[in-house]
Design brief:
Blueprint: H1 5-12, H2 37-49, E1 54-60, E2 71-83, H3 92-99, E3 107-114, E4 131-137, E5 140-152, E6 155-162
Antiparallel strand pairs: 1-2, 1-4, 2-3, 3-6, 4-5, 5-6
Length: 168
């Protein structure tokens, strides 16, 4: 599945600027009342039991103190769904605005589900600005930055930016 900002904008019924990680726009979640909760739960359980889903941890920066250590939100499962590709009709300025200083090939789409049960004290949903740490194997840690998301009835799709620095 290749997810583009244009597709996100169309699905959200909003403008492309919202889907370009525009720092001046605030992240929005689709109201729970507008989502089919049975479909969401089924998608959540499917991801949590998917053998291709990797273990990960989600971290949230301290908004009040950028120098403070990120808060460990907890364990989650992540399923990478493919590369993010900008729409073909974007001009150079739009691509530069969206990708910033990051190489376009670092942008991927994924599904993330917290392992804690919904409504429990340990439950969380990843948000724009969070960090996701994965360990694909051999002790190597890959870090991703949550750039954007799309709430759908069958779960939330996140656009992540891979950190090029490997952690041990």
């Amino acid at each position: 599945m290749t997810l583009t900002a244009q597709t996100l904008a169309h699905r959200l019924g909003t403008d492309v600027e919202r889907c370009k990680g525009n720092p001046n726009s605030s992240p929005r979640r689709t109201p729970v009342s507008q989502l089919d909760q049975a479909k969401r739960l089924a998608a959540r359980l499917a991801l949590l039991s998917n053998p291709q889903a990797q273990d990960c941890n989600v971290y949230r920066p301290d908004e009040a103190d950028p120098e403070a250590e990120e808060k460990d939100l907890g364990d989650a499962k992540i399923l990478f769904t493919g590369p993010f590709q900008a729409p073909a009709d974007w001009d150079a300025a739009e691509r530069e605005d969206y990708f910033g200083d990051s190489a376009p090939e670092l942008f991927v789409t994924a599904r993330i589900e917290c392992e804690a049960k919904p409504a429990s004290t340990g439950f969380f949903e990843a948000e724009i600005g969070d960090y996701v740490a994965t360990m694909p194997g051999l002790g190597e840690v890959l870090m991703f930055y949550v750039h954007d998301f799309l709430d759908e009835e069958d779960g939330t799709t996140y656009i992540l930016v891979r950190d090029e620095e490997l952690l041990d």
